From TrEMBL:
Signal peptide (residue range): none
Binding site for ATP: P83, L84, A85, R86, G87, L88, G89, S90, S91, A92, S93
Predominant cellular place of this UniProt entry's protein: cytoplasm
Boundaries of every GHMP kinase N-terminal domain copy: 55-136
EC top class named in words: transferase
Keywords: Amino-acid biosynthesis, ATP-binding, Cytoplasm, Kinase, Nucleotide-binding, Threonine biosynthesis, Transferase
BP GO terms, sorted: threonine biosynthetic process
Biological or metabolic pathway of the protein: Amino-acid biosynthesis; L-threonine biosynthesis; L-threonine from L-aspartate: step 4/5
UniProt-recorded name of the protein: Homoserine kinase
Subcellular location, record wording: Cytoplasm
GO terms for MF: ATP binding; homoserine kinase activity
Alphabetical list of HAMAP family matching this protein: Homoser_kinase
Length: 291
């Protein structure tokens, strides 16, 4: 086995009203450096971890079992730039990494359709899995026997992420949502989502930002869980952002800005926010990659 590296991007789901269907691949990564060995060894956080306790390796073994292959022994070193429980799709990136590790060392030659289906089966929904696999902005959903998705790569925007020190578990953020939406309310919420997509495709970024901040599906119910939600949105708009939304379920927030304005706005927002990592991020357009 020749040494190789698997890289999987982070992702931001929802993007305002694109609830549980839209996801954007971001330039933060999980890397797996893989080489041949006498026995399986998985290293993370600077030390060797037991295989049965490591999430990525567990996914790798599930894939191998599904397709009936034995995996050759190898040494895997994980490094991650993606903070956990911050709304940046860390679990989906780890799932995709585990699937691709099995695919490579087991010589499975899985198709994109198979990878997406297996990842969605584990994660429960495709909104983070699809961008981690394919890159760019993806819109996806689950049918009874299919997971259709569309990718949009040509987005001419700068992105700034505001990543707080606190974590927010997805289960907590999910529990604060209503079980049902009244019909007229749901129709209005759906219209916002339609306009977000239409604005992106037509490159009407001012309209995109406006609709981004008019979500009705989840942000009105989650914003009380998010420190500085209103302050970040207000200050980012004053600094020139088109719009700001929760990344996934939060607590990270993501601003979209005119191309070329990111560094200036990042510096301004850094001065205003203590206890945050304020990052200027690229949109990843490749998805999972092997090098």
């Amino acid at each position: 086995m020749m040494p190789f590296r698997i890289s999987v991007p982070a992702s931001s789901a929802n993007l305002g009203p694109g609830f549980d269907s839209m996801g954007l691949a971001l330039g933060l990564y999980i890397h797996l450096d893989v080489e041949s060995a006498d026995h399986h060894a998985f290293f993370a956080h600077g030390s060797e971890e037991s295989e049965e306790n490591h999430f990525i390796w567990n996914i790798t073994e599930q894939v191998a079992e599904r397709y009936g292959v034995s995996l050759p022994p190898c040494k895997v070193q994980e490094t991650s730039e993606i903070p956990l429980a911050r709304g940046l799709g860390s679990s989906a990136s780890a799932i995709v990494a585990g699937i691709e590790l099995a695919n490579q060392i087991g010589n499975l030659q899985l198709t994109d359709v198979q990878k997406l289906a297996f990842g969605t089966e584990i994660e429960g929904h495709p909104d983070n899995i699809a961008p981690a696999l394919f890159g760019g902005l993806t819109i996806s959903t689950m049918l009874e026997d299919d997971i259709p998705s569309v990718r949009l790569n040509d987005i001419e925007l700068d992105l700034i992420a505001y990543i707080p020190e606190i974590e927010l578990k997805t289960e907590i953020a999910r529990d604060c949502l209503p079980d049902t939406y009244e019909r007229n309310y749901a129709a209005r919420a759906s219209a916002m989502s339609n306009l977000v997509v239409a604005a992106l495709y037509s490159k009407d970024y001012a309209l995109f930002g406006k609709m981004l901040e008019n979500d009705l599906f989840h942000e009105p119910f989650r914003k009380s869980l998010i420190p500085n939600f209103n302050i970040i949105r207000k200050k980012a708009k004053e600094a020139g952002a088109y719009g700001t939304a929760l990344s996934g379920a939060g607590p990270t927030m993501l601003s979209f800005l005119p191309k070329g304005n990111g560094e200036k706005v990042k510096n301004e927002m850094t001065k205003q926010l203590e206890g945050y990592q304020v990052k200027l991020l690229e949109i990843d357009t490749k998805g999972v990659s092997i090098s």
